[in-house]
Specification:
The chain is an alpha+beta fold and about 230 residues long. The chain folds into three domains: about 80 residues, D-Amino Acid Oxidase, Chain A, domain 2 (2-Layer Sandwich), CATH 3.30.9.10; about 55 residues, no CATH class; about 70 residues, no CATH class. It is about 45% helix and about 20% strand. A hairpin with a 2-residue loop joins strand 6 and strand 7. Helix 3 packs across helix 4. The structure holds flavin-adenine dinucleotide. Flavin-adenine dinucleotide binds next to strand 1, strand 5 and helix 3.
Length: about 230
Amino acid sequence: MIGFQVEVTGYRGQEGRLDMYTGSRIAPGFFAWAIPSGETTRIGTWSKPGLMGGESCEQLLDRLREEPLWRNRFSGCKEIGRFCGPIPSGMVKRPMIGRVALFGDAAGLCKPTTGGGIGPGFAQVDLVTPHLLDALKCDDLSDGRMSEIAGFMGPMRRSQRRSKALRDAFLTESTDSELDDIFAVWARPEVIELINDIGEIEHPIPLGIKMLREIPEFRSLTKRAVKAILLG
Ligand SMILES: Cc1cc2nc3c(=O)[nH]c(=O)nc-3n(C[C@H](O)[C@H](O)[C@H](O)COP(=O)(O)OP(=O)(O)OC[C@H]3O[C@@H](n4cnc5c(N)ncnc54)[C@H](O)[C@@H]3O)c2cc1C
């Protein structure tokens, strides 16, 4: 994916609340965000180039800020920084070979659901460093030993695939009108209760699977998410 974010002062949002925006005009298949960050707010959008019809994320973000429904939230904003870049999500086939180890974005570890890559990068470091240190002590950084160490990243790969399948089912493969229907269901008190109960941004799979299983309106999405369920 590709993302673009500006850091601004003067965004008119509710204190401490993350605003999310979606729809094909501003974040095809994905979402845009306005997230408070101390004195400033980070406002960004992300998508896949193939879904963007030749437009850039910057153009999508401009459109978000001009949307009549909420442009007053953005009218007092002053930009103090901008960031753009690829968001590689999809672990590479061979993250480690003889004497070479890829970490973080280089290994394709960003989360398919949020684009966050810092947490997964550190999780990978925690996971593989002890094994790499052992290999170093034995002076064995051969292809075979490195592939063995990469094998410890198997659960990360599976979890990333399942999150992607759930994201595709709920968001990326939904039309704008299907998204309206999904949000109408998410806004129901019993669904909000479920989200508050087991929803966790770092671990979205349990909530996604439970919603597919327990909320009748989401059964139609089950076909799309079958990969996520089977990979479980
Ligand atoms: C718009 C946007 C918003 C994001 N928001 C978030 C967020 O809110 N939370 C989150 O967790 N993640 C976020 N991410 C993703 C996050 O930024 C990355 O996942 C994270 O920075 C990856 O860290 P990294 O160390 O793996 O790679 P990088 O941060 O890309 O670091 C790699 C470094 O290697 C350097 N380098 C490259 N080639 C060479 C070379 N040949 N020799 C020497 N140095 C080299 C680069 O200059 C760079 O400094 C966002 C990404 C984007 C694009």
